[in-house]
Design brief:
heterodimer; A: 264 residues; mainly alpha; 10 helices; B: 155 residues; alpha/beta; 8 strands
């Protein structure tokens, strides 16, 4: 009997904790958003954060995009060869990248490259009491530190996803057309015949915007809520990466169910 | 790194990102779907449309001349009503016929338009009178087997 009550109370307290965290995080994000006017007043802060979250993530995004495209082209070619429709490999590469892989994989890379760094930076600022010092000087850390980081990540993510998709298509082109020898005209024309601007490309961009908002929110919140010790910051960074990955995949399922299913 | 270099890199990053979006929109996607070209809409009734779906291409002599805008069922005629959006650059005689064809053996289905001989052209809201339904593989196989059986019985 005591075992059952203990298990039940564990489940109960875990649920209450989760709801509590969700509430705190929502209030925190709302507070950051409501103090975001600083980004317009001092665009330099935003530019610095976009450099940190966007420009420094370019190398990993470009290289992974290229390799994902190469693999997709190779695998797609091997499968389509059996049906004698290797020209459709362009369609396969472009649709899988623009709809799914571009936004999802770049969001996962973005979470581990930029999200973790954002969490660590805010966490260490908290540990070394820089945030408290700012408050003492009547500088609001939500506005001065957190808001530019959030918006830098939010604005970088759709651009990174677009670059990822474009690099993937170039990778697919390189392996199938240049190396294997699929007809270049068939590759591009079949791709253009089946990739729709509104249905595929815009929905992919919407996905990347949602993922950018989710990953940036999680990263700044975990940093701000971290326990101010070395161990606490390291746990916060881990939580950022894990929670971001789960959130991105779950959101992707929901968005895909809305965007790409049913009669259209 | 001093501030001007950071600005330069961020500017470059934004330019490359927008360039990638343009690449996706113009090179990977079809430009026609962004700029909706002017056109006219006609309808056709079919006994059976097979697997025809909205957005399937409408072709004449193998050239894409429009798209299927909707597929519906008519309670009056008890047939399938297919609406076709045709590009206004292409004009067809009023007595043209529509048939549902398949690209390759297992490919997607599309609507083919065979031009007739009338001097008047199709206009907005017209209906194609002569139609040919999709070939349903099961029916063809059934007819073939039936024919084979009656052949062997007569021997």
């Amino acid at each position: 009997m005591t075992l059952i009550t203990r298990i039940l109370s564990k489940i109960g307290s875990a649920t209450v904790d989760a709801v509590w965290t969700l509430g705190t995080a929502s209030v925190f994000i709302f507070r950051v958003l409501s103090r975001s006017a600083i980004v317009l007043r001092r665009p330099r802060l935003l530019v610095a954060e976009m450099h940190f979250a966007g420009v420094l993530s370019l190398v990993i995004i470009i290289v992974s995009g290229l390799f994902v495209g190469l693999v997709l082209g190779l695998q797609g070619y091997e499968t389509l060869k059996r049906y004698g429709s290797t020209g459709a490999v362009g369609t396969l590469v472009a649709l899988s990248l623009v709809r799914e892989l571009g936004p999802v994989v770049s969001a996962l890379l973005f979470a581990s490259r930029a999200g973790s760094a954002i969490t660590a930076e805010i966490g260490i600022m908290k540990t070394t009491e820089q945030l408290s010092a700012m408050e003492m000087m009547a500088v609001d850390p939500h506005a001065r530190v957190v808001a530019p980081m959030f918006w830098g990540g939010f604005l970088s993510m759709p651009l990174l996803a677009a670059i990822f998709s474009a690099m993937g298509i170039i990778g697919g082109y390189l392996i199938t057309v240049v190396v294997i020898g699929v007809d270049s005209g068939a590759f591009w024309s079949q791709m253009q015949a089946s990739v729709d601007f509104h249905h595929d490309i815009l929905n992919g961009v919407i996905k990347s915007i949602v993922f950018g908002a989710a990953v940036s929110s999680i990263a700044v919140y975990e940093g701000y809520a971290s326990v101010p010790t070395a161990e606490g910051v390291s746990r916060a960074v881990t939580r950022t990466v894990v929670t971001s990955a789960l959130a991105v995949l779950a959101l992707d399922f929901v968005l895909t169910a809305f965007m790409f299913t049913g009669v259209h | 790194m001093d501030r001007s270099m950071v600005d330069l890199w961020v500017g470059l990053f934004v330019a490359v990102g927008i360039g990638a979006l343009l690449f996706l929109a113009l090179k990977a996607g079809n430009v026609d779907s962004i700029i909706k070209s002017e056109g006219y809409s006609v309808s056709a009734e079919f006994d059976n449309i097979g697997g025809l779906k909205a957005k399937a291409p409408v072709k004449s002599a193998g050239v894409i001349v429009g798209r299927v805008s909707s597929v519906n069922f008519s309670n009056q005629s008890l047939r399938a009503v297919v609406k076709l959006d045709l590009d206004e650059r292409f004009q067809f005689p009023k007595d043209s016929s529509a048939s549902i064809l398949t690209a390759g053996l297992l490919g997607d289905q599309f609507v083919g338009i065979d031009p007739g001989g009338s001097l008047e052209n199709l206009v907005e809201g017209d209906r194609l009178r002569i139609t040919q339904s999709a070939i349903v593989l099961e029916k063809v196989i059934g007819q073939f087997l039936y024919g084979k059986m009656s052949e062997t019985n007569s021997d």
